[in-house]
Design the sequence.
């Protein structure tokens, strides 16, 4: 009988934690002779998906490993990058080679030591 009461209590606690959410935060610093060698900041939020969305946390929706929608975002991102690259190359001014040679000649003259 006792065992079933404990399970019910554990289920109630779990339901409350997921409904309300719980934050666990901690910092770990390893230092030697007053110099910080390693600093780890831990932030853990335990909540239901609904509660996380209420709080504005929805990173799993755009994570490529976790969401089908993210594959569409990756494809769209790649398409936009290609369009941007195409526009940039189309807008680049074409420099005549004669201009480049004159600039090199002036630099060479400025570098030569005076006789």
Sequence:
């Amino acid at each position: 009988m006792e065992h079933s009461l404990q399970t019910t209590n554990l289920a109630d606690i779990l339901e409350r934690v997921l409904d309300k959410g719980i934050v666990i935060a901690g910092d770990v610093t390893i230092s030697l002779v007053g110099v910080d060698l390693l600093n780890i900041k831990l932030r853990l939020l335990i909540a239901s998906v609904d509660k996380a969305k209420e709080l504005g946390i929805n990173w799993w929706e755009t994570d490529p490993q976790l969401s089908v929608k993210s594959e569409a975002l990756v494809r769209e991102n790649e398409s936009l990058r290609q369009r941007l690259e195409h526009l940039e190359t189309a807008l680049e001014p074409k420099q005549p080679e004669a201009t480049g040679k004159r600039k090199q000649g002036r630099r060479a003259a400025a570098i030569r030591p005076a006789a």
Q: What stands out?
A: Residues 106-110 have pLDDT under 50 and may be disordered.
